[in-house]
Amino acid sequence: MNETVNLRYEPVGEGQFPLLGKVYAEAWKGSSSAFAPSAYRKKQTAEKAAERFKKQAKREKNLRFFLICRGKEPIGMYSTSLYPDRTGELRKLYLLPAYCGRGYGMEVLLHILWENRELDELFLWVPGANERAFRFYQKCGFAATGDEQEVAPEIGLSEYKMVLKAPLDVRAAVIRILLRESREAHASALQGLLAGPQPEEAEKTTPAPTLSGETADLFAGWLAALCGAGGVAGDEGNVAKALSNLLSRYTSDIEIDPFQNVIARIRRPGENKPHILLDAHIDEIGMLVQKTLKNGFVRCVRDGGIDPRLTAGQEVTLHGARDIPGVVVPPADGKLPASDGVLIDTGLSEEELKETLTPGDMVTFRGPFTRLGERRFTAKALDDRSCAAAILYALELTKGEELPCGVSVLFSSQEEIGGHGAKVAAERLRPDQAIASDVSFALTPDADPDECGKMGDGAMIGVAPVLDRPMTEALKALAGEKGIPYQLELMGGRTGTNADAIFCTGGGVRTALISLPQKYMHSPIEIVDAGDIAAVGRLMAEYLRHPLPAARKEEA
């Protein structure tokens, strides 16, 4: 079912206010029939609405009205106001009764968010008695602020404020998935009604779905926001805030601890049910300012495992009192640069640098987020924010489901310098089971095929002595049963990921590892595949639906 793709949005001109008033009056009467008395609704005529809108448009220069049209036929209207503080208000959004409940509302809201994606937030006011509208906006990610205003005291009608925070393009991508799922459910139900009762058949394996453009767009929105936030080990505050914002769709129980770990408790475990932790680290490799020098130069030390071959000539950003662009100086002797003592040229004077930078300030590489075709992305910090996107996708897939387990999410700090954040947080959370996720090496023409995964071939399920064998086998079985593409990654000892820190916390945590194949690790041009992100997220979601029982404590 895809009946809303031909919608168009027509700005209302001087001579169109009578038509706007007519559409609004009919749509408003339909939506308010459940809470506004008949006598009150009769007073809200098309003529009054048209005159009111015309006066508002002349008085408020930032107010714009639009007719929502399907072909040549108007089916609704909306209006917005944009303010100087980078906020916007969705003043009205109404559809004619015949077009309600058919996906048009989400389609229009998606358009509005995308058109205004540069805003820091979009807010609106919902009549308190209009429960249907409240549920709609809540489903689309808007949150009630608690603010109230009276709008029609003669009938006791008040409105309540709801807000959707940036990034609005990410929110739009989430709504696009909700819209697609709504259409698919409608089409499936319709097909079932037309087909009539069918004979029972044996259960079949679910085939792996083709990656949709909507899902790839969702990942692109998440990753553009996450990779654009700086966060070297020990200074992850910016990316921690970005992830807290994205997690707010799934829970309000979110904290950023003193180590800048992001901890979200999605569902509390029931009695005798396992508590499962999903982990991905959020710190990126980078450098720290060591000292400022004459003629605009800055000397830096590494923060994380920088490959010296990739530093010379790179563009960087120095995050001091303000962000300063710079370039890494190639060594004059042509030799391989050292990973410590890197020189950066900023072009500023020594005085300007001393006013802006202090020792310990963060330095990040400037690897802009870019799509390579429809499925692949390149940027800095995809290690490990692509796995954070996979965890968000698992939460999206299981949102609203009754799961046989408790779920916590850990977006951990300081993995690149030893997994310290994961160890600290796991000691606090004490999960029964954990799934760590990190990137691993993807095959390139100059690499050893036995040491690499294949990009586009799906999730990499880890096999190692420190990993829990029953969990590993359960992941393999689920991937096979559900048609989720996967490959194995064999390690002879430790894994080099947060799994090494988590499995030995407390009295021991059953831990599995799902990795994501990535090209050009620890560089500003890391590359991942959207299909692999989807495979990791789907496999996590299936494990949350079918976890191993919480038997470790009884066995002990």
Automatic annotation (TrEMBL):
Instruction: Answer yes or no on keyword S-adenosyl-L-methionine.
Output: no
Keyword entries, A-Z: Aminopeptidase, Hydrolase, Metal-binding, Protease
The GO terms describing molecular function are: acyltransferase activity, transferring groups other than amino-acyl groups; aminopeptidase activity; metal ion binding
Q: Which organism is it from?
A: Candidatus Faecivivens stercoravium
- Specify the domain of life of the species encoding this protein: Bacteria
Gene Ontology biological process terms, A to Z: proteolysis
Q: Which InterPro entries match?
A: Acyl_CoA_acyltransferase, GNAT_dom, Peptidase_M42, Peptidase_M42_aminopept, Peptidase_M42_dom2
What name goes with this protein? GNAT family N-acetyltransferase
Pfam family of this protein, just one?
Acetyltransf_1
Which family does the record assign?
Answer: Belongs to the peptidase M42 family.
Q: Which residues form the N-acetyltransferase domain?
A: 7-167
* Keyword Metal-binding found: yes
Which Gene3D superfamilies does the record match to this protein?
3.40.630.30, Peptidase M42, domain 2, Zn peptidases
